[in-house]
């Protein structure tokens, strides 16, 4: 039986969730129990015990703490999500609205000016 990882919440119920770094094998089991099949890690180091659940595919983007992702990392993340949700519907928001919505759903997210700037730059690239 799994144990909910710290700060776990659904951004799009059943399709996209956010969470703090899973640290226990039971955290990975919880993700599987929730139907999660892909885990995208933004940390520089491999998440502990990530090999304890071979049914969960780990994708690593390696972004230094409190830094913003580069355009290529954002594109890679979107490709992972798109492939995992190939039959899902796309929902688009303006950059400021997207930041506000993520902060509403996951307080403490998008912490720095550089991270906000990365969201706005991504939005401009996609227009």
UniProtKB/TrEMBL annotation:
Any Pfam family the entry gives: PTP-SAK
Superkingdom assignment: Eukaryota
Residue ranges of domain Swiss Army Knife protein DSP-PTPase phosphatase in the record: 6-84
InterPro entries xrefs: Prot-tyrosine_phosphatase-like, PTP, PTP-SAK
Assigned keywords, A-Z: Hydrolase
Signal sequence extent: none
Entry GO MF terms: phosphatase activity
PANTHER family, per the entry: TYROSINE SPECIFIC PROTEIN PHOSPHATASE AND DUAL SPECIFICITY PROTEIN PHOSPHATASE (PTHR23339)
Protein name (database record): Dual specificity protein phosphatase 23 isoform X4
Gene name of the encoded protein: DUSP23
